[in-house]
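1st attempt posting a full record on here, be nice pls
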Amino acid sequence: MEVASAMMSVRFGEFELHADQRRLLQRGGLVKLGSRAFDTLLVLIERRDRLVPKRELMDLVWPGLVVEENNLQVQVNTLRKIFGAKAISTIPGRGYRWTVVIDTDTASTGVETPNGSDDLPQPAGNLLPAVGPLIGRADDLAALSEALRTHRLVSVVGAGGIGKTRLAYAAADTLRTEYPDGVWVVDLATVTTSDAVATAVAQVFNVKVEDAARTADAIALALSTRHLLLVLDNCEHLLEGVAALAPRLLAAGEHLTLLTTSQEALRLPFEHVERLAPLSLPTGPMLREARDSGAVQLFVARAQAAAHDFVLGDDTATAVCDICRRLDGIALALELAAARLPLLGLQRLRDGLDERFRMLSGGSRFALARHQTLLASVEWSHGLLADAERQVLWRLAVFVGTFSLEAAQTVAGDESADDWQVLDHLATLVDKSLVSIEPGETPRYRVLETIRAFALAKLAEVGETDAVLRRHARAILDVFERSDTEQWSVPTEVLLKRYLPDLENLRAAMDWAERQPTESVVQTALAGASAWVWIRIGQRREGLRRCEQALRRIGPDTPPLFEARLLGAWRFTAYPQIGPRERSASVRAIEIYRTLGDRIRLAAQLFLSGERLARSGDFDEAVRAIDEASAGCDGTWPIGLRRLAVGSRCFVLFMQGRHEEVHAEADSNLEAARDSGDAHFLHDVLNSLLLSATMLGRHSEAIAHGRELVALARRAGSNRNNVYQAVSNLSAVLTDSGQIDEAIELAREVVPELTRSGEEVLLHSLALLAFKRGRASDAARVLGRAAAMHDEHKTKIEPDQDRARKKLLESLQLHFQSQELESLLKEGAALSDERAAQIALRS
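the predicted structure (as tokens):
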């Protein structure tokens, strides 16, 4: 197939090229030229104003065919034998450029360099035109462009495959007009030694030197008067050579700017480092959240190029978001995954990520070898590490999500590596972009999932997995032992901010301990120490499951403190169930704390026990428990116990119907709660004011407290349990006062979260809401389920809910015949809580 050409004929030196006749003449005589060589010549001459990438040449000369690169080299060598070696310049790893001047009487192959050495190429540079837009990097592009305007040495540093090269080229292209002598790229990927860095740069600029030792000086002299941007790409394996060359070039030419890409900075004093993070990940699984994510944008663009019918919609957003998260927002991994989409489909692609190194291969044949498979990319980065650094990386891979320095030292250290050595190796892994650092008041670290999967396989190969996982479980136990102690003295929001980052590590450690026959003590300790977390983040159901798993492992070797803490935690997470087992667990925990003389834990357990006893209607026992706890409680006790003391007293009074006393107790503590800095304490006080004002018929006051309560809970954010409670109670009081539209909006927001997490739903208020919306039959069914729920849990209905129940029942008795109402109530009793809530809120 011949290359189409708009060019008819041109002259250069002693040659004439007639494209329409496919003839090449030299001094009037015909030059024999093969079809592919002729096509190659046409392409180069037609595009003589720029460098022609190898891929573009091959696609035009061999359209629709897959050929080896050496076929192109053969044609170029053929042309050089005819026109001279300098007629076609080579930019290593990138492409070719025709250098002979067309339509003149003499041929030229370049311009003289200032030092009289061989030719310096055209000042336009060798930066290739961008292929497609830069996706998801607008902020990074702006930051890098600004850095290049203000610094002469800028390094883009980041993990392998993260997109450093593409960003660097995009920034260089953006600023191309600011460099009169062009933008020049030197790809160091195939250079094997630091000594050869200067030689690679010299080749790009056609700087010839006879003494290899003076190569850097020759380059510096050749570029000294040039106003250009030099991009040194893929420097991580040649840091010593690049760091030696950079100062000499910058010192020689005041208008030269140097941009490097590397997995590690050069560590030069005048270097400005732009550390490139992964593409932004979606903040949630919904379509609107997915569209804002740079990672999703890139995946979708590449997926649509591979499978033209692919669309990001409500039905695909969740799977796409999951893929992007599991691939850490790494550009290379996302592109390789998208290329597999036509073969596997979206669901199989997501499911196959556990075998990501086998699945994610087959990158562009024009890409670097290490970018053609995910495994090759990771192996390249891993190969740059020293043995001790590799060992630390393998061990750190057992962490899920982020981890602290202290935990890293516990897990990665041993007799051959103390804490300081682990710190040094961790710093190196951060420098080499294999571990990322997440800044904050206390920095945390993360091994990206792809690197982590590779490192875990290496850990297994050396037989260390079990030993390192054991150290990991104990390190996480140390973390949550601290949290168990601090929960009484530190505001809840601070606690959550401090300990939530280790939630995934907690899950992993508990799962591991559950599988180990000899780790019952670790399991019981972890479950008891961390139970508070599950409640606060609205994951009561998971907390209950974790506690029940650990309860089965209590035995003679279980330390008394661990047993008491776990029993109390299980009673706490088991709410709203209050039966003989739950009571027995609480009694046993209280006995152990008395024996141990642990006053704070004893008081806390007594306060919580008092609340649970009041829920079951045992008011005398509830009061005795709270009185005993309060006897040792004074103003010096930590904020957590003061909060429990006020909250439990208010709740018992509330359950007894003593609403004026509840209001007075809460009101007397309102100022102290505001001054405490503990949003949880203030939440409990405001909630007591809301409930008591409701029961006293002061709806405006109740709604005002409710709105403040919801605003407070939303600001705190991470304490999801408080958000659920605040929104539910405000919805209930709005329902009671007839503000139906806002009530249902709030209920629809929170009820799905309550049923998912296992928290109690205010079914009586939802039933009343359904009735006020004109859905009497649904209201009766939901009311039937509400009654059955309290019977099953053996709990006394709370006064505000009982008020809603009585109001509704009176209305239903007027609306239905007794037999019909009885049938609807019975039908509703058989529903689940979740189904009843759905019926109450359906449109």
